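Entry for the shared binder. Reason: the reviewer on the internal report wants the predicted structure included alongside the sequence.
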Amino acid sequence: MREVLKTLKHRGPISKMYCPRCGSPKIRLSSSLDYWLTPKKYVCENCGYTGPIVMEIEKCENGKEEKPEA
């Protein structure tokens, strides 16, 4: 359990988020209460998707971004 917490503590900058339906980067939390009071719910400004799931792209150790798999 400690190892998991250490990786969370030392995690790098926030990864980029994309809509799982259309792939748009125009995705945001549905309200200011999300994340600290209620479960996260995202809204896509492009296609109207609403839900708890988003795609994320993280940078690899070599500095390049990993592409999300379709």
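Summary line for the report: DSSP finds one helix and five strands in the chain.
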